[in-house]
Amino acid sequence: MGALAVTFSGCASQGHYGGNNVGTMQGAAALGPEISSFLDNATPGSISAFSKSPWGSNVSVIVQERYFAASGRLCTHLDVARQGAPANAERAQVACLVNDSGWYTQRLVTQVLGEPSTP
Question: What is the pTM of this model?
Answer without folding.
Answer: 0.68
